[in-house]
Write a structure and sequence with these properties.
single chain, 409 residues, alpha/beta, Rossmann fold, 3 domains, two-stranded antiparallel ribbon, 14 helices
């Protein structure tokens, strides 16, 4: 179509068949009083009337409109509409990044009841079922440039609202945030685990559960701060050690309280079960009288683990009865080890702090530690914090009485 024909089509677009009833009403007014319509329309009606048959009223106009009716009406400009839809999809993706974790299925028992999150509904952003099979730009999402809306929603749900909740939008360092988002979104929420890894994880979980059952059977009635309900901590720690060693970490310093400590000692640090059982039965004596008050939950331990990157030294700090007070001790120990190794980049020593969910929220030393975590004198380059949630604080049984926030962190 030439530029001239486009201009002619534009200039006569008001004569399309879709406007016939409206133009005919004006024509009736023109027949009664030619001055009652705009001059441009009066001229148009005069030109149409010149070819009319005097014996047939409106014949010229009718024939003219039959021809005009064959013209397609110019389609409306839907650019603004499409842009609104594209913007709505971007808002939906952002909503999943911000609040998707609130809809994640984190509790195998299904105890907490979470209200629906309106921001995660397509309708909230002006999208409906008719849009599901339309393709949209994926924006900053680490995915193909264009995807169907239903596929975009599936990807976001799998990544941010599956059995693992992800909350990373608060990270102020753009490079770090994008680095994390890329690794989360590229796989579409599918965490591939091969058969060998499955068998290894199963073995770790079986060992963790087996130890707890044995202690419960053999030492009935003894307070043992079981890891039951948090068994996956063992597989998490084991994978952390393996990957840390493979990436150049030489030492790991661990701090934790009572719950699950015996399991970590045996199944991660490799402490002899016989030694542990002797402590349960009071058979092990210490020559140092200053250690006479220590119980099996206070003792530290150190050992080496073989990793793909070489041996990794692991040290579990001694722990007093006061929850979380060991945290700054662990960070100080990690900093001292970095100084000794001249590890100015903080790449070779990594601290790990394992918290109970109630203690994390309740002990002020945790927040004090965060406040000092990036200072020049005390920074260690980052700490891995693990919150073990057995849904029972030591002094309360109802999670609603424990804190005012969704998470203890």
């Amino acid at each position: 179509m030439t530029r001239k024909s486009l201009e002619e089509l534009r200039d006569s677009s008001h004569l399309s068949g879709g406007n016939a009833a409206w133009i005919e009403a004006w024509y009736e007014d023109w027949l009664q009083d030619p001055s009652s319509v705009p001059d441009a329309w009066a001229k148009t009606f005069e030109e149409l009337a010149e070819g009319a048959d005097p014996g047939r009223a409106h014949l010229g106009v009718q024939e003219a409109f039959r021809e005009l009716g064959k013209r397609p009406a110019l389609p409306c400009d839907d650019t603004a509409y499409s842009e609104r839809k594209e913007a709505a999809v971007v808002k939906l993706i952002t909503a999943y990044r911000i609040r998707g974790h609130e809809a994640a299925n984190l509790d195998p028992l299904g105890l907490p009841h979470h209200e629906p999150v309106p921001d995660l509904e397509p309708e909230f952003h002006g999208l409906d079922s008719a849009d599901m099979d339309r393709e949209f730009d994926t924006g900053a999402l680490f995915a193909p440039d264009r995807m169907k809306l239903r596929d975009i929603i599936d990807l976001c749900q799998n990544v941010y609202s599956g059995s693992i909740g992800i909350e990373a939008i608060h990270i102020t360092d753009t490079a770090k945030r994008r680095w994390l988002q890329e690794r989360l979104e590229t796989g579409g929420g599918a965490y591939a685990v091969n058969d060998e890894e499955r068998v290894r994880i199963l073995g770790l979980l079986t060992a963790a559960e087996g130890l707890e059952k044995y202690l419960h059977t053999r030492y009935v009635g003894q307070k043992r701060f079981s890891l039951e309900g948090g068994d996956s901590l063992i597989s998490l720690l084991h994978e952390t050690m393996i990957h840390s060693g493979a990436n150049g970490v030489q030492e790991v310093v661990i701090g934790m309280a009572h719950r699950g400590r015996l399991n970590v000692l045996v199944n991660i640090l490799g402490k002899s079960p016989a030694m542990l059982f002797d402590e349960f039965e009071g058979k092990r004596k210490h020559d140092d009288p200053l250690r006479s008050g220590d119980v099996k939950y206070h003792l530290g331990y150190a050992s080496d683990m073989q990793t793909p990157g070489g041996p990794l030294h692991m040290a579990l700090a001694f722990n007093p009865s006061h929850l979380e007070i060991v945290d700054p001790v662990v960070i100080g120990s990690a900093r001292a080890r970095q100084v000794r190794r001249q590890d100015d980049n903080h790449d070779e020593v990594m601290p790990i702090l394992i918290h109970g969910d109630a203690a994390f929220a309740g002990q002020g030393v945790v927040m004090e530690l965060f406040q000092m975590s990036e200072t020049r004198g005390f920074g260690v380059g980052g700490t891995l914090h693990i919150g073990v949630n057995n849904q029972v604080g030591f002094t309360t049984s109802n999670p609603q009485d424990m804190r005012s926030t969704l998470y203890c962190t």
